[in-house]
Amino acid sequence: MENILHKVNRRFISSLSEEDIHRNNKILESNYFDQVVNVLVLENMISVDPVFASMFRRVFYGGSYYDGLHVGRAYDYDLDLLLVIPKAANPDLQQSEFPGHIRLQVNDASWLWTSPVYSNFKRTFLDDDNYLITDKALNWMKSIVHKGFNLLPCTDGRRYLPTEVGDFPIRFSKSGPAVTLHIDVDCYYWIDVDLVVSFVFTEDKWPPGFLPNPYSKFISWLGTTTDLNEFFIVAKQPKDVPNYFHPGRHWRLSFQEQERKLIANKGRLKPVGRLLKKIKKKEQHNKIASYYIKTVLLFMVEQRNDAFWQQPLSHVLLDVLETYTKYIRDKKIPYYWNEEYNLIGHIDDRTLTNFADRLEYIIKDITRNPHKPDTVVKYLLSNRELEEFYREGLDKPEESFCTLL
Asked: No. of H helices and E strands in the chain?
């Protein structure tokens, strides 16, 4: 099974087809992705909106691709556009009634009337009580992207992103807490870039009721404090909030930089995380978000020592799969930073029970068939991938294994 898992990882998760390699090289060699960020985000969006230009700090490359947990198409990107609220506003982060979220209130709005840049700040971002509103921030972000689009070349009613290897059609849509850019590379291949509006704060604003920053004392070798002393709030509301709680006032906390550090250099952790996501996809457990699996791994980093993650891939996979199944069976995956928030609390009990039953069956099927080490692949690979697996003889031992035997 160890041999087979490594083959699956190389052939169906970590590697790309020759066609994908050709396309990716074309993009990378022309700095295509950097041009998307630099032309549309850093140049056009800054030029069309003085408030964005004033508040924009940096781009954070987030999501599973940059965490090393990505499965599937190689060019789906998450970019957090980190904004800073001016100190003169005296922003106050308050505990939300909903775990895992926060409210932000501007305590001093008088400066708004004295700054020409921020003269429309209240109307653009705040409600009557000076709370930062998610929907307003998202609509503002969408309007800036739209204005930035209008600066791109237009042919036959379509906007194009100019690059060194040609002009590519580009469009955008609003999806959840993000504005998604869709860039067509050719008739069969495209890049999706999620632009997420986020506000960044330093550790002095670390929210009460959340796990303390594990890197609060982390100092770089240069002697300067790193960005691990920062966190974000994202325009994502809690689910099913009654209107009298003002849903738009509640922002989701994001500690992505700390999480990336916590799972770094943990041996088998990332390969196992990708295998677990393949199982989720094959079993069509679509209600389980990738972040929920990442959260289970974060808890296991606390519960296991570093030596655990250096063990054989097959051993770590079964241990992680059993732990993950227990969380599903218990119908609770706590938010790592605030365990009062149940990430799967919105999923009905019957669905979670069915998921747990299926996962337990998979574990039993694998463990009771040690003489059939390829049993695991039917829970990892799609039908097309299974055909490739057996057609290419990937279930056979490597030559070196045969020689040793």
From this structure: 15, 13
- First-to-last C-alpha distance (Å) of the chain: 16
DSSP 74: S
Cα separation, 255 vs 140, in Å, equals: 24
Residue in 145, 150, 207, 136 with CA at minimum distance from that of residue 181: 145
Per the CB < 8 A criterion, the answer to whether 247 and 237 are in contact is: yes
Q: Residue 237 phi/psi, 5° resolution?
A: -80, 155
Tokens of 231: 């966190």
Q: What is residue 224's DSSP assignment?
A: S
Q: What's the rounded Cα separation, in Å, for the pair 367 and 373? A: 9
Cα-based distances in Å from 187 to 49, 164, 184, 190: 33, 19, 7, 8
| Separation between Cα atoms, residue 113 and residue 134, nearest integer Å | 23
Q: Report the phi/psi class of residue 364: left, alpha or beta, with left for phi > 0 and alpha for psi in -120 to 50.
A: alpha
On the question of pLDDT at 402 being above 50, the answer is no
pLDDT in tens, 8-64: 988 888 655 555 545 544 554 455 566 667 777 778 889 999 999 999 998 898 888
Cα–Cα distance, 397 to 4 (Å, whole number): 8
HSE-CB of 378 using CA atoms within 13 angstroms:
9
Query: 70, 281 in Cβ contact below 8 A?
Result: no
Of residues 368, 355, 283, the one with CA closest to residue 324: 355
The residue-averaged pLDDT of 144-160 equals 89
CA distance 156 to 171: 14
Per-residue exposure over 281-308, b if at least 16 CB sit within 10 Å of its own CB, e if not: bbeebeebebbbbbbbbbebbeebeeeb
143-152, 314-323, 377-386: least confidently modelled range: 143-152
List residues bridging with 106 in a β-sheet: 91
> For strand 76-83 and strand 190-202, is the pairing parallel, antiparallel, or unpaired?
parallel
Side chain identity, residue 163: T
Q: What is the pTM of this model?
A: 0.87
How far is 237 from 128, CA to CA, in rounded Å? 19
Unique residue bearing structure tokens 């999706």:
192
